[in-house]
Amino acid sequence: MYQPSEWQTAPEAWLVFVRRHPELGLKPGKWTFHNFLRFHRSSLVAVDAIRLARKRFWIAHVERFSQAAFECATGKPATAPTVIEPEGRDL
């Protein structure tokens, strides 16, 4: 059975993010995304929200990118999503 990928091209993720957050005043488009990456690339990579694929283009995690990009755009350092372990589970 087909399961959608957790990853998409970063420009597609950027378009979804910009449309989801009009309050930020960001514009869609390749060059706006390029400029956003100039300032926030290391934060987005650090939380595994984006990865460089084939040393040529960026891909973005469907869930992590939006959260991390919002944090970057609002001046808060991007953080990895918190994983909540079920209670009673010993590791």
Helix content: 40-55%
- Arrangement of strands in the largest sheet: 1-3-2
Structural class category = alpha+beta
Summarize the main sheet. Answer: 3 strands, antiparallel
Output the number of helix runs: 3
- Give, in order, the helices and strands: EHHEEH
Number of strands: 3
Number of domains: 1
Rg, alpha carbons? 15 Å
Span between N and C termini? 32 Å
Q: What global shape is seen?
A: globular
Average pLDDT, rounded to a whole number, is 87
Low-confidence region ranges: none
Name the beta content range: 5-15%
Quaternary organisation of the protein chains: single chain
Describe the structure.
By secondary structure, the chain is α+β, with helices and mostly antiparallel strands. The chain has one domain. It has three helices and three strands; from the N terminus they run βααββα. A three-stranded antiparallel beta sheet has the order 1-3-2. The radius of gyration is 15 Å and the shape is globular.
